[in-house]
Write a structure and sequence with these properties.
By secondary structure, this protein is an alpha/beta fold. Helices cover about 40% and strands about 15% of the residues. The termini are far apart.
Length: about 290
């Protein structure tokens, strides 16, 4: 295929992906009069539930973000020794909980006495607990799959995560994200229709030979979306994603001037610890 034809096909695929992301943020299929009203762009994702507003990755944070009316909630998951998928950013407990040690070394019953720092008595949430909150709303889920303390993947986390999404009825409203793209390959092998995001930091962009090369590699893996560190945002990033037929989002954008710039760009979603500000600024642009 000639370059011009390939780029045209890439843009068409990117538009289709953006429509899918908008549908994801709208809570799934929409029919009737509501279908005529396009979802606001870009979508707003509450990073770890809104980590500058509430204790990160807590049920309090996710409830708060959903009450604000965010389009997407972003969270991270690890797996316990006995196979429970839990919502936590770090592979170890110390920073955000009263517990100690790697999550992978402990069974779920051993974590029942652990509380989240910054809360009175909230325990570490399971993925099932957070999905139960999201289910009755119209929000979508950005679900980052983490690895263990030494970068090793958790055994069978793909099957367990997909089972939890299916039980909650949220497969169509979820995008699975990862920095380790082998994780994306394993999810794609198990679920041909699941939305997948390859996360790219500034370091990753250099290591992979630039954003265009990264986007093409993601396309080859069957991913749908490119999620970039905020400092990489610019015309090159947008062109790389669109040329590969991918949607594109930025993380993690918190300062008011940076939020305004991200919201004015051609990205499909903005991930932020201040979803309240992002929603306010987006509303002011209409």
């Amino acid at each position: 295929m000639r370059r011009g034809g390939r780029e045209g096909a890439g843009r068409a695929a990117a538009r289709a992906g953006a429509a899918a992301l908008a549908l994801l943020a709208a809570g799934g299929a929409v029919s009737g009069p509501a279908a005529a009203a396009p979802a606001p762009r870009p979508a707003i994702a509450a990073h770890r539930g809104g980590a500058l507003l509430w204790p990160e990755n807590s049920l309090t944070a996710f409830r708060g973000a959903l009450a604000l009316g965010v389009d997407l909630v972003e969270m991270d998951v690890h797996q316990t020794r006995d196979g429970e998928v839990v919502v936590l950013h770090d592979a170890t407990l110390e920073r955000t909980t009263t517990g100690r040690g790697p999550v992978a070394a402990l069974a779920w019953p051993e974590l029942l006495g652990v509380t989240l720092r910054g809360t009175a008595s909230e325990r570490l949430p399971r993925l099932a607990d957070v999905l139960a909150l999201v289910g009755p709303t119209r929000a979508g889920v950005l679900l980052e799959i983490k690895t263990g303390p030494h970068g090793a993947p958790y055994p069978d986390i793909e099957a367990r995560t997909l089972a939890l999404l299916a039980a909650a009825g949220l497969e169509a409203r979820t995008t699975v994200m990862a920095f380790e793209w082998a994780t994306l390959e394993r999810f794609r092998a198990r679920s041909p229709g699941l939305r997948l995001t390859g996360l790219v930091s500034r370091y990753d962009a250099v290591r992979l030979g630039g954003l265009a090369a990264a986007a093409e590699r993601l396309r080859g893996l069957g991913a749908n979306d490119l999620g970039i560190e905020w400092t990489l945002l610019g015309p090159e990033a947008i062109a790389a994603a669109r040329g590969a037929g991918l949607t594109i989002g930025v993380w993690t954008v918190n300062q008011p001037d940076e939020l305004r710039r991200a919201l004015a760009s051609d990205v499909d979603y903005v991930t932020t610890d201040r979803p309240d500000l992002a929603l306010e600024f987006r509303a002011a642009r209409r």
